[in-house]
Amino acid sequence: MGISLKKLKHQVVVITGASSGIGLATARMAASKGAKVVLAARNEAALQQLAEELRSKGCPTAYVVADVGKEEDVRKISDTALSEFGRFDTWVNNAGVSIFGKAMDVSTEDMKRMFETNFWGVVYGSRMAVKHFTERRVPGALINVGSLFGDRGTVVQSTYSAAKFALHGWTENLRMELEKEKAPVSVTLIHPGRIDTPYNEHAMSYLEKQPAHVGMMYAPEAVADAILYAASHPTRDMFIGSQAKLTTVLGRLAPRMMDKWMEGTMFRTQHDNRPSNPREESGLYQPGYGMHERGTNSGWVRNRSWYVKASKHPVLSAMALTGLGMYVWNASKNNKKEQVPYS
User: Fold this and answer.
1) Is 160 labeled as catalytic in the residue annotation?
2) In what ranges is there compositional bias, type Basic and acidic residues (predicted)?
């Protein structure tokens, strides 16, 4: 993108949805790497506890209680960063919530509420970040956290998927306009696969059984690693795990096959065998519980994403793949020579 970003240890990083899951892991990792952080979420008790934790480790920290679905609250996040630190260098739009239920069962009221958080919250945050970076004329990073379900539709989470599709579209359109204007903004879209966070516990559920990831998932630290890499290295997209990348690629190359695969697997791998939490306890209209990075999912967790590691070192990865390809090709040639009978 032709933009040079500061090293993370010299940055002020704004993180929405910082009280749990990916946001919490990102805040802790950013602090450990020397960044100053501005935490935003609806759960004030969790924010206060996290701020005290990070400050006790020597990290300058500010927090603001904010509902990103309200533009005036997002403005408060920006104002807090400016009043506490005089600037911010990276803005991470991470806050989000889901609804589990069939498309025809979910109320339009609940759908609209989710879009306020998952889509409009990203729009408000993006506009605040771009305004700040362009006015300062100092390069900054805007990082929007999407989903594999923003690249490929799914069942049972139709509203969440639709909101993430909208988020992805907004991010791509904004990136192109800013690039055309030569604005000093690096725009990155994060594509997480299934991540072991309290995301399912915070969701509004229309199901009889509790939403949960069943099968392979990734640790939230893998997403935090990708986010913070993009904060100091201009990057268009970061996919968290081959799971996310393959779902996207196959969804485009073989859409009908992926329809059938989704229909055959996703109805049974998005809930656990226990009663669903009551809807009134969900985080759709009120803050969910905080200070938990991991959720109560069923399956196995990969603590790192080799796909993220490869994305951070594309030249070395390409050289390694080329070397592997040459080795396989030479091995196959030698094998053929050995099989040629002597006359």
Assistant:
1) yes
2) 269-282
